[in-house]
Amino acid sequence: MQTLAVDIASTFVDDAVALVTGLGRAVLRFAMQPIDRIANACDIAGVLTERRATFRMWRASRTRARHEGRRFSLLGRLSPFRHLAHLT
């Protein structure tokens, strides 16, 4: 019963963190729109588009590596069922 309560609490905390992160990104994107518009207008050599493409490739490879690797968490290490993870 205790693990269920811990799982519910950790899920709630994870969801709250994701909500705050998403709202922060939305506010930041809204605030940066005029600056991005000016930067795109001034980008004559195409440096910004090249930098964005490089960043997208880097982020995609990082996400792929994260999904391929195992994700360890403190709750996963303390779980009594941690050795059965390969069954799920």
pLDDT averaged over residues: 80
Stretches where pLDDT is under 50 for at least 5 consecutive residues are none
Count every beta strand, where a strand is a DSSP E run of 2 or more residues: 0
- Tally of helical runs: 3
Rg, Cα atoms, Å: 20 Å
Largest sheet: none
What's the overall geometry? Answer: elongated
Task: Give the SSE string.
Answer: HHH
Distance between the termini: 20 Å
The percent of residues in helical segments reads over 70%
What proportion of the residues form beta strands (DSSP E)?
Answer: under 5%
Structural class: mainly alpha
Please describe what this structure looks like.
- The chain has 88 residues and is mainly alpha-helical.
- Helix content is 77%, strand content 0%.
- The two termini are 20 Å apart.
Provide a short characterization of the protein structure.
The protein is mostly helical and 88 residues long.
Secondary-structure blueprint:
Blueprint: H1 2-42, H2 47-68, H3 74-78
Any descriptors?
elongated, single chain, 88 residues, 77% helix, mainly alpha
